[in-house]
Write a structure and sequence with these properties.
It is globular and about 80 Å long. The strands form two sheets. It has a six-stranded mixed β-sheet, sandwiched between helices. It has a five-stranded mixed β-sheet with strand order 7-11-10-8-9. The chain has 17 helices and eleven strands. The longest helix has 17 residues, at about 170-185. It has helices spanning about 5-15, 25-35, 55-70, 100-115, 130, 135-145, 150-155, 155-165, 170-185, 200-210, 245-255, 260-270, 275-280, 285-300, 300-315, 335-345, 350-360; strands spanning about 20, 40-45, 75-80, 125, 190-195, 215-220, 325-330, 360-365, 365-370, 380-385, 390-395. Helix 3 (about 55-70) links the parallel strand 2 and strand 3. Helix content is about 45%, strand content about 15%. By secondary structure, the chain is an alpha/beta fold. The protein binds one RNA strand through helix 12, helix 14, helix 15 and helix 17.
RNA sequence: GGGGAUAUGGCAGAGUGGACAAAUGCAUCAGACUGUAAAUCUGACGGCGCAAGCCUACGGUGGUUCGAAUCCAUCUAUCCCCA
């Protein structure tokens, strides 16, 4: 492997990054890697607490790809053991523990999603259960002696919880220490994460030092805001775009963000081609382009075209979309509510549906439904719209 | 180990015996306006019933009472102070 010049590498690495700590050491590492022709080991860890990675994670994955293209070794760490504890970062409550089965399942879906971005080369996938299952208690005690409680309590999220009188379990204190120990095992030269991972990643340096090994460099990517534009993107807050979201949903979610947020997304996700976006002055068109670009990236251009088209019929033209397949429904002895419940596959309760009718939120064949007395005839076809995003096509038999 | 406090709907947080399906805010959903933007305004926001109403719900269990989120006992969990 022929590396490019270290200062050139640094320039590329520094794009769209919040911080490198400490930067001068990174230069040294790059130089020695260059001289000895040995790739750097770049670690990034993910806890399989949910089955999906989202656009926020993609910032880290993209940067990993940069390292990959520069010829370095990616150590993709799946925290299947630590997931059982739950990273307390940014939390105001203890996480509920997860079942092994769920964790395993999530971990396996991660790989598929990761390779939507990364190439299948120079990647090691590591599971930390490998070294933590069967980790000796005396080792653990030795490990815990390397960090003190006061320092842990200085961490912003712990501090807030402590001051607010919220519970912090000892297990949660253990989390950063275990994550740090991962770096010892992985022998990472670099660890990447969001800026909220600052503490954990820097603790990795400290623990590596205690193990008398070279210390890793922390590289911090910016945090992507969630769809609400307030909190960071996360599954728990349900403000995320998953890498696995179906194309149409992905596109729809992009369209729902505010203009301000759109600019931020463009800046963070497509910093290298922001001119391309900024040429388009009309915000609606720019947002569509953003949605299209994102869908194309995780799927392909035809899917992106299709989802844009569906979006436009559904919402801009308020037409009934063409991709809904017709469902046959038995008519006998059912009243309107029964039918609506059946059609929507129990997505709504009867009370909810009644409210929708009162609010004029249900349309049948383009007419707003105003009473419960309306009933279909046999062989009749209905196109039903409930709220703004639920469409059904029915034939009664 | 001792003492004190707290537990309410997705979250935050009122409510101290009937007027409580439980104020208010956030979140959510719908309608209006739009670019399904955002902001704003209006309404809804446990379930079942066309409705009167019924059922389920204020940490768990058991009691007092005609009646309990509210009182008592007990259990559980969390926090604080002392040791």
């Amino acid at each position: 492997m022929q590396f490019i010049k270290p200062n050139k590498q640094l320039e590329i690495i520094k794009q769209n990054i919040d911080a490198i700590i400490p930067e001068d050491e990174l230069i040294k590492k790059l130089e020695s890697s260059y001289e000895n022709n040995v790739p750097l080991r770049v670690k990034a860890g993910f806890d399989p607490t949910t089955s999906h990675l989202h656009l926020g994670h993609s910032l880290i994955l993209r940067k990993l790809k940069v390292f990959q293209e520069l010829g370095h070794q990616i150590c993709f760490l799946i925290g299947d053991f630590t997931a059982k504890i739950g990273d307390p970062t940014g939390r105001d409550k203890t996480r509920p523990p997860l079942d092994q089965e769920v964790i395993d399942n999530n971990a396996s879906t991660y790989k598929d999603q990761v390779f939507k971005i990364l190439k299948d080369e120079n990647v090691e996938i590591l599971y930390n259960s490998k070294w933590f299952n069967g980790f000796d208690l005396s080792n653990l005690i030795q490990l815990t002696s390397l960090e003190n409680v006061a320092r842990l309590l200085e961490r912003d999220d712990f501090k807030k919880r402590y001051q607010a009188g919220e519970a912090i379990t000892v297990t949660e204190f253990l989390y950063p220490i275990l994550q740090a120990y991962d770096s010892v095992v992985v022998k990472s030269d670099i660890e990447m994460g969001g800026t909220d991972q600052m503490f954990n990643i820097l603790l990795g340096r400290q623990i590596q030092k205690a193990f008398e090994m070279p210390q890793q460099i922390g590289i911090f990517v910016p945090i992507l805001e969630g769809l609400d534009g307030k909190m960071k993107m996360s599954k728990t807050l349900d403000n995320h775009i998953e890498l696995n979201d179906p194309p149409e949903e992905m596109f729809g979610k992009v369209m729902s963000i505010s203009d301000d947020l759109m600019s931020k997304y463009i800046k963070l996700l497509y910093f290298d081609r922001s001119d391309f976006f900024n040429e388009i002055l009309d915000p609606l068109d720019r947002k569509k382009l953003l949605g299209h670009t994102i869908v194309s990236e995780y799927y392909d251009a035809p899917s992106a075209d299709l989802s844009q088209e569906l979006f436009e019929t559904k919402f801009s033209k308020k037409d009934f979309p063409g991709d809904i397949s017709e469902v046959q429904i038995q008519l006998k002895d059912k009243n309107l509510l029964d039918l609506l419940v059946e059609i929507s596959e129990n997505s709504f309760s009867r009370s909810e549906l009644k409210r929708f009718i009162k609010d004029k939120a249900i349309e049948i064949n383009r007419n707003k439904l105003t009473s419960l007395d309306y009933l279909p005839e046999e062989e009749e076809k209905w196109e039903i719209k409930i709220g703004k995003r639920n469409f059904y096509k029915i034939k009664f038999v």
